[in-house]
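To the team - calcium ion complex, inputs and output below.
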Amino acid sequence: MPVPIIIDCDPGHDDALAIMLAAANPAVDLLAITTVAGNQTLEKTSLNARRVCTVAGITDVPIAAGCDRPLLQQLAVADDVHGESGMDGPHFPEPTVDLVPEHAVELIHRILVEHPEPVTLVPTAPLTNIALLLTRYPDSAARIREIVLMGGSTERGNRTPASEFNIHTDPEAADIVFRSGVPVTMCGLNVTHQALATPEVLARFEGLGTELGDICAGLLAYFGSTYRRLWNMPHPPLHDPVAVARVIDPAVVECVEANVTVELHGRYTRGATVVDLHRYLDRPVNAKVAVTLDTGLFWDHMVDAVAALGRTGLERPGARG
Ligand code: BDR
Ligand code: CA
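Output:
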């Protein structure tokens, strides 16, 4: 039976591919896509989710917009990483799929209540919507099978020396999630930096011969230029699909158990995930922490997903008879 999931995202180049992986892989049943402010404003991340679903032919999954700012602090978008649109690079046609007229938190809550089985939440963005859900509807925790998130790191950050973007953008929300008692799996930078989009990976997307394959290659090419400019990295890491891959096939992402605490007060470390891998602190395990990625299997899943959607989505003009 496919695992029922909801993706909560802020597209975002890597969120876009996470949506495609979740929509195409038969091991998961994508029940909804919800959006939040993060990489860009809520308006832009919601538009981008609609753009992705349009080009990928994902027409039967509700998309709902959620919170337009973090719980306590001001929103600081990542336009240096994702550009003015939040998904700069390839051209996207006018979206033909709409948002549903329901707040993301209400949609997630309704699905949790109505679905016959507990649902897995896959946040690939600041955790504002998820924290609000757990705060407003505490009973919904029992209906969540697990939260498999992209965020944090066992090592250093990418927004400050200590903190990763999704956690740094809304540390109070992340704190609520990690302390919620819901099973949490954290796919942080330490593992997503193993998912590097090399020229060989881009060639596999282009080699699909579909419009969607070209769009993915274009997204990764833009992301690559960002990573060279900002971090001097030769290839960009594809963060968000790693969390989806963990749900699809746990063997792709190896995890260890640890206590994870979100630093809320550090003068230079606010938003850091303090991951106690060696049990220095007398604190209970509250998370599975991803440590190793089977890179080959990961990219196979990702390319297969885009290939499958390309058959139903827009065809590249003049490609393959
Ligand atoms: C995370 O931050 C965002 O920019 C990406 O979409 C990803 O979710 C990586 O730190
Ligand atoms: Ca994201």
